């Protein structure tokens, strides 16, 4: 069974969604027959390598709110994360383009499959949300990728070129065909979908439904 997860590394709901999906998968009796792959989605396409200026003001303008509302949103998200063992340090976040991070996630898949891609995803999210790493800067991405176990030569090759850019764009094109406008978004066997950071119980139900109906089709 194939599960594809569209997400962005700077999306806090994607962090929670990843944790909840992992909890669901741990309870799924056929977990060893599930292949999980992350797909690319940019919340801020066309962003510079690093945004300048006040982050709260920029987000307030983006969402049509004000600084107080942005701060309250971050506080709520921080509390939700803490309840699930996730550290969000929004005051440290350094925003920027995530296209290179997505290219490295494709590299991770080719170098080490689902396990290495999952490890890199975790490291990128931790670097951005907890450590204040500038997620669009090549130096930071290189450091995080090496931490995750990617080979230095391959990381340097990708960051020094546009390798895997076509794969990122293909993921984004597929997201548009599916009608995905927000992330995380889970797709099972290109047939069953779930939007948002669903509770683990709901994601487990999705896996069970897809498994049972898949067996029925193949019978």
UniProtKB/TrEMBL annotation:
Gene3D superfamilies: Glutaredoxin (3.40.30.10)
SUPFAM superfamilies registered for this protein in UniProt: Thioredoxin-like
GO MF entries: oxidoreductase activity
Domain of life: Bacteria
InterPro entries xrefs: DSBA-like_thioredoxin_dom, Thioredoxin-like_sf
DSBA-like thioredoxin domain boundaries: 3-207
Pfam families associated with the record: DSBA
Alphabetized PANTHER family for the sequence: GLUTATHIONE S-TRANSFERASE KAPPA, THIOREDOXIN SUPERFAMILY PROTEIN
Identification of the protein by name: DSBA oxidoreductase
Higher taxonomy: Bacteria, Bacillati, Actinomycetota, Actinomycetes, Pseudonocardiales
């Amino acid at each position: 069974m194939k599960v594809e997860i569209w997400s962005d590394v700077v999306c806090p709901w994607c962090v929670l969604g990843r944790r909840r999906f992992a909890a669901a998968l741990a309870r799924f009796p056929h977990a060893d027959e599930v292949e999980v792959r992350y797909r690319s989605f940019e919340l801020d396409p066309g962003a510079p390598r690093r945004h300048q200026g006040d982050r709260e003001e920029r987000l307030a303008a983006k969402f049509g709110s004000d600084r107080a509302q942005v701060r309250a949103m971050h506080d709520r998200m921080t509390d939700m994360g803490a309840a699930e063992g996730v550290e969000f340090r929004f005051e440290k976040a350094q925003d920027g383009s995530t296209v290179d991070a997505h290219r490295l996630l494709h590299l991770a898949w080719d170098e080490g499959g689902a396990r290495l891609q999952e490890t890199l995803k975790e490291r990128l999210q931790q670097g951005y949300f907890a450590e204040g790493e500038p997620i669009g800067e090549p130096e930071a991405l290189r450091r995080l990728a090496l931490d995750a176990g990617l080979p230095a030569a391959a990381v340097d090759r990708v960051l020094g070129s546009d390798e895997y850019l076509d794969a990122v764009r293909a993921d984004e094109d597929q997201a548009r065909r599916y009608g995905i406008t927000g992330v995380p978004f889970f797709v099972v066997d290109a047939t069953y979908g779930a939007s948002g950071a669903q509770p683990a119980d709901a994601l487990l139900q999705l896996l069970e439904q897809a498994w049972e109906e898949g067996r029925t089709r193949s019978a």
